[in-house]
Amino acid sequence: RPPAPPEGNDDDSDAPEDLMDDDQMFEIDALLTDAFKSARQDRTQAKMHASLLVNFKFRACTLLDIYLKKVPASPHTVRMLLPLLRSLSASLAPAPDGNDQLAKRLTSLITQGLCKAKMGALTPSDADEATIVLKRVSALASRSKTKPLVAASAAGALYLLRVIDACATADAANQQAVVAPAGEVVTGMLNDFFTRKDCRLPATFLEQAVQRCDWLPPLVLPAVLPLVQSARSDFLRVAAATLVATTLRHLATQQNGGGKEGGKKEKGKKE
Predict the structure, then answer these.
(1) Residue 184's Cα: distance from chain center in Å?
(2) Rounded to whole angstroms, what are the CA distances from 142 to 3, 131, 154?
(3) CA triple 176-179-185, angle to 5 deg
(4) Distances (CA, A) of 47 to 40, 41, 42, 106, 260
């Protein structure tokens, strides 16, 4: 028979000493109330700061829109594109970080304001800066998973090609040197479109680029011609054939009428 436990050795004998009295409980309640109130205030303040930041961005968009209308040929226009695309990317994020209305405003500012700005007096250094921006914008246009950002980036890339084309026209003696780096970027985008499954570049981008830049067809045609047969899908083979046809038509226009200007004259004669 096991021996009986000694008296005074009860395990629960010390439990009352661990309990708090009423005054201590009231103090804990007050501390908890203050903590919850502070958390609510922090959330309210965070929402207020987010709202103020969105309003500030809207005002900044309005000021940039006015600036583009008043000074469309500013050399700062090219530098605006990448920050605006980054802001668009942030505004397209899921709630609560994103904002649909701000995304629409930024898209309009990029595609309707900046990308349609008039060209001013340009120099080869402007082409260098535009090419640097083009490399980063082309990555957004090719690999972003958000359709509005892809569309805005593609429009921005076409605008940058227009800037580079104007620089090459202004410096005809060194045209090849001016456009060569941009040509490498465009051929890289072409390779992405036809070889990468995750490429989001619009199918019409390369056609529009070829039609707008007289120096692109000789670079694009050798790269795209083999893809008419070797592209990995029927869709891409059709896209390659369409791009070849567009490139050949533009080359024919250049030979017959002198590029973009000649194409306009031919169109006027037909009318």
Answers:
(1) 20
(2) 83, 16, 8
(3) 135
(4) 11, 10, 9, 22, 52
The predicted pLDDT at position 81 comes to 95
Question: Which residue matches tokens 């990555």?
Answer: 139
pLDDT digits (tens, 9 = 90+) for 196-251: 998 999 989 999 999 989 899 999 999 999 999 988 899 999 999 999 999 999 99
Which residue, chain included where needed, has tokens 């958000």? 146
Chain center to CA of 219? 26
Radius of gyration of the chain (CA): 31
Cα dihedral sign, 162-167-172-177: negative
pLDDT at 7: 56
pLDDT tens digits, 159-181:
999 999 988 888 878 888 889 99
* Contact assessment for residue 124 and residue 167, using Cβ atoms and an 8 Å cutoff: yes
CA distance 241 to 40: 61
Query: How would you label 148-182 residue by residue, b for 16+ Cβ within 10 Å and e otherwise?
Result: bbbbbbbbbbbbbbbbbbbbbbbbeeebeebbebb
CA–CA–CA angle 236, 237, 240 (5° rounding) = 85
Sole residue written with tokens 């090459």: 168
For 121, the token pair is 């007096």
